[in-house]
Amino acid sequence: MAAYPSRSSGGRWLMLAAEMAGLxxxxxxxxxxxxxxxxxxxxxxxxxxxxxxxxxxxARDFTVATLGRxxxxxxxxxxxxxxxxxxxxxxxxxxxxxxxxxxxRPIRLGLLQLRPCVLCAVADxxxxxxxxxxxxxxxxxxxxxxxxxALSDGWGYTSSGTGKVVWAMFTxxxxxxxxxxxPSAWDQVAGPAx
Length: 194
Known about the structure:
Elements (H helix, E strand, L loop, with lengths): L2 E3 L5 H11 L21 E7 L4 H16 L6 H18 L13 E8 L2 E8 L19 H8 L2 E6 L4 E8 L13 H6 L4
Antiparallel strand pairs: 1-2, 2-3, 3-4, 4-6, 5-6
Helix pairs in contact: 2-3, 3-4
């Protein structure tokens, strides 16, 4: 397996991402968790990933298992897809190639939950900013950040001193009213489906 749980509680790189997302320090305030009875202490899980393609599967498994333990299933699939995209970008664009003078540093995945928000962050050794580009109509690549934009409530990046951290934030979606409790006017007029 290519994912290894980190012994630290997240480190500076994850806190930088949380600050940029407005979950810690300055930035936009979080909704007041007290009315819902939520704990104010964040949950943090991190892992270090290898440079192989198996890391993507391991990162998705780590994400799904962590969110399951946290009872944060509302956006689990969206978050797992975004983690895959962020990690794919890090593996493809951020690792030093042959002849590159940069030292090899591992890619790290961090998840932080401060209800109702979940932040996922991928730290990589490259200082290069992620660039949202229009994908070509026949291109096989170039859609990763578009997927991140579509599935998350916000994303960004920050310099970490040893590279960068790319993050995406998710808030819990409010449940839709049940059709059984609130029938539409059409249901009342049309009657049962044939």
